[in-house]
Amino acid sequence: MTRMEPLPFIYLLEDLSRDLSVRQRYQRMVAAIRATSFNLDVSLDAVALLKLEGDSLRPVAALGLKMEVLARRFKVAAHPRLKIILENRRPTRFSADSTLADPYDGLIDGGGTQLEVHDCMGCAIYIDEQPWGVLTLDAMQAGAFDLFREVDGERHMQTITALIQAIQRIETLENQAVQQHEIARRLLVNELSPEIIGRSPVIQTMLAEIDTVAGSELSVLITGETGVGKELVAHSLHQYSARRDQALVQLNCAALAENIIESELFGHLRGAYSGASSDRRGRFELADGGTLFLDEIGELPLSAQAKLLRALQSGEIQRVGSDQDISVDVRIIAATNRDLQQEVKAGRFRADLYHRLSVYPLLVPPLREREQDCELLAGFFLEKYQQQLGVKKLCLSHAARAQLLAYDWPGNVRELEHLLSRAALKAVREQGRVSPIISLETRHLGLTIEPEQAGQQPPAEPPLTVSGDGFRERVDHFQQQLIEQALQNNAGNLAATARELKLDRSNLLRTIKRLAG
Hints:
Blueprint: H1 6-15, H2 22-36, E1 46-53, E2 56-63, E3 74-75, H3 80-87, E4 92-94, E5 119-127, E6 130-139, H4 150-176, H5 180-192, H6 201-213, E7 220-223, H7 230-240, E8 248-252, H8 258-266, E9 267-268, E10 280-281, H9 283-286, E11 291-295, H10 302-314, E12 316-317, E13 326-327, E14 331-336, H11 340-345, H12 351-357, E15 360-363, H13 374-389, E16 394-396, H14 398-406, H15 412-431, E17 438-440, H16 442-445, H17 451-454, H18 471-489, H19 494-501, H20 505-516
Parallel strand pairs: 7-14, 7-15, 8-11, 11-14, 16-17
Antiparallel strand pairs: 1-2, 1-6, 2-3, 4-5, 5-6, 9-10, 12-13
Helix pairs in contact: 1-2, 2-4, 13-15, 18-19
């Protein structure tokens, strides 16, 4: 009788007593599933665990898929295979000749953008009779799941579901160590706050800073270059705060003429100046009880800075044309791409206002310092444009991905977002909306990589030695040359070699064994 190989899952049971993050636990589970291959005599090219969140499935762990997949959100209604898997309580198989679009077409790690997944199998995961998510297994080998027995699959899924339940209980116990209002706050943010995409150390540090200060009443000064996402951080700070049920009111200080800034901030009475045809509340009154986000605060003229400082010090404002004080309860979040300390030294910004605003400074890192997030962000944006443009699949070619990673991104995340939106339109126009996979190539990106940005050139590819052998032998010989060169480049380190070749380590080992045999 077929049974699940116990060893990898014994390690997972041992993991339950270890101090691991939830993400690490899910990733190790996926690795164990791939290692056992569900006891099929085939190699699983891709395994993914997706969690149901609202109307979308979010990948929480994956192996054999490109990194960008982890930032994608698969709307169930837009992906018929995932919808069928989720609705079926038994394992669901899709043969190589299935006409249903595969959500991972063009997203297999190490495959070309036009390479489509062949055999696919998926299993719905239900916990307490509620849909939790799905597990997907993909193999490039046609007929890979022909020998699969449903009774074995159900047994395997019972083990996997039990492990997920255990992981969820651990997560719940960890959350109970946090104050109850913090737990509720996190749940609300997951539903309402725009996502901050990234796993790099610098972005994780920033998220920890947000977590630290959001629940307080301290004023926060968000700094960073243009396009890094300061507005997104401001929204997260508000949604994490105790004021989340009240208004978040925004004012772009750079977009206003000097003669109307005071009216925008504090409001005015009818007849206070030419054009004031009625009483009007300002941003402070609109934000009463909530948060006021002053974007581009460094552009505020000195005359307005003094009145803003008075309002922050006293908690009271006066509408233009009135001498009546109005009490307001407002938390201030400000943002700027300027160095305000230098602006203070230059006499363009009040020192007392700077200190009042920067009680808790928060720096948003530039994209060039979070290179490993670039691919995640690209996947997130491409999934969004895919839905907006009504196409089946948008993905990056290997060359386009390499160019994105080599670029310096002076315009940061905003530049990446705009560039990919243009590239997607160009690719769709060129390849047509009905194409199953629309590949974004370097010509669509239109990037110019300066030599100093490209950094150290990669090692030259080994030449293909042509002999009198047949096609298969020549391909094997070329693969052997590539692997030998990569091993030499990485001092024999298999993990580093696999990364250079963009292969999964287990796939690399299998290829080496096959070539050696």
